[in-house]
Amino acid sequence: MTLPITLAILIPLLGTTLGASMVLVLKNDIRPSIHKMLVGFASGVMVAASVWSLLLPAIDKSVELGVPGWMPPSVGFMLGILFLLLLDTLIPHLHAPGDEPEGIHVHARKNTMLMLAVTLHNIPEGMAVGVVFAGLIEGSAGITFSSALALAIGIAIQNFPEGAIISMPLRSIGMSRN
After folding, report:
1. d(CA 76, CA 90)
2. By three-state DSSP, how is residue 96 classified?
3. Percent of residues in the chain assigned helix, strand, coil, to nearest 5
4. Roughly how many angstroms between the first and final C-alpha of the chain, as a whole number?
C-alpha cells in the first residue's frame, strides 16, 4: 500500500511538470485570452476539488462525531486563510505579469520571486493531498484510495494550466526552455 500512495502523492507534481513542459511547444508568451481561460479552468477545478474532496467529507465527519457540521471545516478554512495571509506577508514573491514585489522586501531576481509565488500557492495543495492520504493510511472512515486519488488527480489537472501559466513568463524574461 505504501508504494501506490507514494506514487499517487506525486501525481500533482506530474500535472505541474506537464504544464510547464508547454514552454517547449508554445511561443514565448501566452495570448491574454488563453491565459484567462487557463486561469479560469484551474480555478474551477480547484474549487471543485476543495468542495468535493475536502469540505464535504469534513462536514460529514464532523456530523459523525456529533459536532455541528459547519464548525470544524469553517474553523479550518479560516485558519488556512490566516496562515496563507501570514505567508503572503512574509515570503517575498512576484505575481506574473506584475513588476511590484510583495512580502518582505529583498533584492531578488524576477524569476526567483515568481518561483516563490508558485511555492506559496502550492503549500496548501500539498497539505491537502498529504492530509487525505494520511487519513487513508490511518484508516479514517470515509477516505478511500479512490477518493484520495481523485483529489490528487484533480489537483494535477488544475496544476497543468498553472504550470503553463508560470513557465511562460519565466521564458519571456529570458530563462532558457531547458
Report:
1. 21
2. coil
3. 75, 0, 25
4. 35
Residue with cell 530563462: 175
CA 130 to chain centroid: 12
| DSSP letter for each residue of 132-173 | HHHHHHHT-TT--HHHHHHHHHHHHHHHHHHHHHHHHHHHHT
DSSP designation for 95: -
Single-letter code of the amino acid located at 138: E
- The three-class DSSP label of residue 102 is strand
Q: Which residues contact 21 (CB under 8 A, 6 or more apart)?
A: 163, 167
pLDDT in tens, 126-168: 888 888 888 888 887 678 888 889 889 988 988 888 888 777 7
How far from chain centre, in Å, is Cα 73? Answer: 19
Report the C-alpha gap between 10 and 13 in whole angstroms: 5
> pLDDT tens across 84-142, in order?
888 888 887 766 666 677 778 877 776 777 777 777 778 888 888 888 888 888 887 67
Domain boundaries, the chain: 2-172
Q: What is the pLDDT of residue 72?
A: 92
Query: What are the φ/ψ torsions at residue 78 (nearest 5 degrees)?
Result: -65, -40
Q: CA-CA distances (angstroms) from residue 79 to 73, 74, 82? A: 10, 9, 5
pTM (2 d.p.): 0.70
